[in-house]
Amino acid sequence: MLEIRQKTRQLGWLTKKIKTKKAWFANTWSICLEFDYGCLLFVPRIWRNGKLPVKSHWFGTTSSRKSLGCDLCGEGFPNKNQLNIHRRIHEGKEIHTCKYCGKDLISLSQLKIHENSHTRDKVKRSVVCDQCGKAFTSSSKLQRHAVIHTGARPYTCKECGKDFNQSGNLLKHKRIHTGEKRFKCEQCDKAFARNEDLQKHTINHSGVWPFKCAECGKGFVSSTRLTRHTRTHTGERPYTCDVCGNVYFSSCTLKEHMRVHTGEKSFKCDQCGKAFQYKRHLQRHGFIHTGTKPYICKDCGKGYYLQGDLTVHMRKHTGEKPFKCDQCDMAFAVTSQLKRHTFLHTGKKPFTCQLCGYGCFKPLDLRTHMRRHTGERPYSCGQCGKRFRSTTTLRQHKYTHTNIKGVTCEHCGKGFSQRKLLKQHQKKHRLCLENCHITVYAA
């Protein structure tokens, strides 16, 4: 005890120096007094009216500071606060997680105070991202944010090797491996690994979306998703691909697009080993093994593997076209159609064959074109064995076996099994009288 008294007297002298020299205090956030059997950490809390309250905490031995262990699972923690948060998991109590950094807190009031540190008044934010205009309180926070635009993923999961651009995202991902579902619904006791999944689920009970688009009325669980959605109406695309110059509404869509250039296929089917660039493609593929199409159109009975595919299909019945071209007022049912349409105005074909210079609007079209050079024909007819470069030409070929006319001339009603036959027919069928601007269709 004598040694502790001597050390704390030394600390008292230091705190007097701190009181008189505020600039020195600004760089001094903690004082650790070390002993043979442990260390005593003194942390200055808040400078109020020249007074310096000092908070002390005993950490145990210097070599092993995780001295507080959970009596249920044995995991160690450096302080009681983190241990108490951990115990709530075993007790089934709710834990409040910061949506910005993934930090866990016990109460909603603590969460609110903590999240306010992320969302302070923008007047205090002097560091601005030159890519998207978002403001930050420090250059270190700007650097963490800049990773979104560069596509770098410095945080790697040790279990599966998946990379992430933010530490908070890695923290959320780890719960997939541990099976931990800390977010429980108070109404039906269903549990979720992520808070945003719980928020989506609670809407099933309440029927109320916390954030709604003023343009189309679509609901969202977070302001971030609403902001991303409103860009489909405004046309704002702050994220640019460094390789081909394409612009995107969100960092997620840019990240997905980059796989076109890198060829990355990180989503593998655990039944047949086939890999996919996108998670939704893996989900759609998975139903091939089960043979089910869980999403059925109520109007025509057509089935789909994904909810998103059914949503797009329903627009054929409703006539809804939410994506409008800002140059000619043409509207489209899906964003990909709008994107391809805008290239007609710019004349730009972002995907080019390096062998012959052929340009196209979609990466799928480029892959199909490349098979002309390689001779690859991966799709075969089950009846006659004939092989094709694309699923479209295979599908059209199948009509020759069934006598189904898949495409019809809009002028005379004649049916054809292939689109190229229809085009040949229309060239012979159409006679244009340019002088009187009348088109006559011969019998």
UniProtKB/TrEMBL annotation:
Stored InterPro entries: Zinc_finger, Znf_C2H2_sf, Znf_C2H2_type
GO biological process: regulation of gene expression
Keywords associated with the record: DNA-binding, Isopeptide bond, Metal-binding, Nucleus, Repeat, Transcription, Transcription regulation, Ubl conjugation, Zinc, Zinc-finger
Location of the C2H2-type domain: 68-95, 96-123, 127-154, 155-182, 183-210, 211-238, 239-266, 267-294, 295-322, 323-350, 351-378, 379-406, 407-429
Gene Ontology terms, MF aspect: double-stranded DNA binding; zinc ion binding
One cellular component term from this protein's GO annotations in UniProt: nucleus
Primary localization class, coarse: nucleus
SUPFAM superfamilies in the record: beta-beta-alpha zinc fingers
Pfam family, one: zf-C2H2
Location(s), subcellular: Nucleus
Domain of life: Eukaryota
Family the UniProt entry places it in: Belongs to the krueppel C2H2-type zinc-finger protein family.
Role according to the record: May be involved in transcriptional regulation.
Protein known as: C2H2-type domain-containing protein
Native species: Neogobius melanostomus
Organism ancestry: Eukaryota, Metazoa, Chordata, Craniata, Vertebrata
